[in-house]
Amino acid sequence: MEHPPKTLEEDVLPSPTTTELEELDDPIVKLQPSKMEDYFFPVHKLKTRLEDDKKEPVVIVACGSFSPITYLHLQMAKDYILDTNFEIMGGYYSPVSDDYTKEGLAPSHHRVRMCELAVERTSQWLMVDAWESLKEEYTRTAIVMDHFNKELNDNRGGVMTSDGKKRKIKVILLAGGDLIESFKIPRLWLDDDLHHILGDYGVLIVERTGADVFGFLLSHDILYQHRKNVYVIKQLIYNDISSTKVRLFIKRGMSVKYLLPNSVIKYIHENNLYTT
Ligand SMILES: Nc1ncnc2c1ncn2[C@@H]1O[C@H](COP(=O)(O)OP(=O)(O)OP(=O)(O)O)[C@@H](O)[C@H]1O
Ligand SMILES: NC(=O)c1ccc[n+]([C@@H]2O[C@H](COP(=O)(O)O)[C@@H](O)[C@H]2O)c1
Fold first, then answer.
1. Interface ipTM
2. DSSP character for 260?
3. In this structure, which residue's CA is closest to atom 8 in ligand 1?
């Protein structure tokens, strides 16, 4: 279990590069198709070479509804940098399929496109993978993690180190504290899946207001058993934008500016999403 930095002095926050602060003029775009038969695994922002051989290559996978994606989801993926032992090769949003019966889900092709719009001008490492969303039936998160592992390690052989050898990428699930707390809901998660996700992959937990992550880690047997593979990202500034509230604001005709990227707001209006 990773603990937050003890003092701020010990923890040197990397300064963002200019490109990270500006919206990219020349966006790195490779849109996902809307049919499974046209599906390809997106790799256009994936780093293929490890810069620091002492670090462990990692790909972050964020599963969720993203209905719609907000600045919280974008910021959540950024906080990994506090952990200095990983070198991030890339990150993916994997929106759930339409079969996931949750209130407020816009059709999956809209959710995928909104995620793409959100990252295409603002990130040099985040991509959107439509595989899960293109499936007619719901796919459990453990199977989604296997899909990423297969694409990255089995099909592509991981990454290249400086001496030309290939190294396996650690695929890690990025999840908010609330998602982790859902592990305790009876029959929602299979124990075998939790052992697989936590034991064979790993979880990066982003603290969320109202969720006592450390207390929960202590109380949950399977999480505790795999605690070495569980990394908690302490939120220094809490951001509690929620997609539910964003949908409600839109429905009530209120402004959602500064809660999500303008390109996503424009898309929502153009496609008349969340108005009813
Ligand atoms: N405020 C937050 N702080 C930390 N993590 C969050 C926050 N909001 C969402 N997440 C995380 O983002 C991921 C995807 O979230 P998802 O879109 O499914 O839920 P949500 O934003 O809570 O949406 P909804 O309001 O529709 O339930 C999940 O891992 C969730 O825990
Ligand atoms: N058994 C499982 O694999 C399982 C159970 C609950 C949620 N999840 C995942 O968690 C993510 C977020 O779910 P919610 O939007 O319901 O918070 C989704 O990607 C969903 O697929 C997976």
1. 0.94
2. B
3. 242
- What's the sign of the alpha-carbon dihedral 42, 48, 51, 54? positive
245 has pLDDT over 50: yes
Could you tell me the fold of the domain covering 55-270?
A: Rossmann fold (3.40.50)
Measured distance CA(269)–CA(201) in Å, rounded: 38
pLDDT in tens, 115-124: 999 998 888 8
Residues having CB within 6 Å of any atom of ligand 2? 63-65, 96, 100, 102, 140-142, 179, 182, 188-189, 193
* pLDDT for 4 beyond 70: no
Domain boundaries defined on the chain: 55-270
Q: Which ligand does the CA of 241 lie closest to?
A: 1
Instruction: Say which residues have a Cβ less than 8 Å from residue 86's Cβ, sequence separation at least 6.
Output: 55, 56, 57, 58, 80, 170
Q: Model-level pTM?
A: 0.91
